[in-house]
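Review form for a predicted model. The reviewer records the input and the model, then writes brief findings.
Reviewer: anonymous (R2)
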Amino acid sequence: MKLQKHVKQAFILAGTDTSAATLEWAMSNLLNHPGVLEKAKAEIDAEVGQGRLIDESDLSKLPYLQAIITQTLRLYPVAPLLIPHMSSENCSVGGYDVPKDTILLINAWAIHRDPEVWDDPEGFKPERMLENGTGIDSCKILPFGMGRRACPGMGLANRVVGLTLGSLIQCFEWKRVGVEEIDMMEGTGITMPKAHPLVAMRKPRHFIDGVFTGEAISG
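Model under review:
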C-alpha cells in the first residue's frame, strides 16, 4: 500500500504538476508577446481550420506551436536542476574526476541561458527554434535530461502540453487583465512555479459553439 502511494505521488508531481506549470509559463509568455500568440493562432487556423478541435495527430504539422513550447522550456524549465544523479563508479566527466557515490545536480536553467550559446539568452523568441530546420538541439536544451537517464515521460509531456496549449490558443481570445506585462518572477519549490499565479481574460472565439453543435465553419 505504501509503495502504491509513493507511485501515485510520483505521477502527480512528475506528470501533472510539471505539465500544468509549463502551460502557465507558456501562456504568460504568449500574453507578454501578443504577436507570437497571433502567429500561433494563424498557424492552427491554417493547418487545423475552424471546423473541428485540434487533435494529437495535428501536432506534427504545427512547428511554430512546438517552438513556443521549446522556448518556454528553455527559459522556464520546471525542473531547473533536473533530477539528482549519482555516479555508481569513479569516472571522469569533461576533465573532472567524479568519485563514486557523488550526487550530481545539473543546472539546466543556467545552461539554457548561457550567453555563449544563445543570442539574447533572456529573450522569448520561438523563431530561433526553427532556424536550423530541426528544432531542439538536445545538447543545448535539456529540460527532460538526456541520454539513458532522460525523463521517460518526455514524449507524453510534449503531447499533453502541445494539445492543451494548442486548444487554449485555438478556442479562445486571450488578453492581459491590465496594460502591465505579466510578472515572470520565479517562485520556489521542487519544481519551478510562477511567484504570482497567472490571471488573464479570455473570450471564446466565434466558431466554438458551432464545433459542438455540428455547425462549425469548415476550413
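Findings: The chain is about 40% helix and 10% strand.
Further findings: The mean pLDDT is 88.
Recommendation: see findings above.
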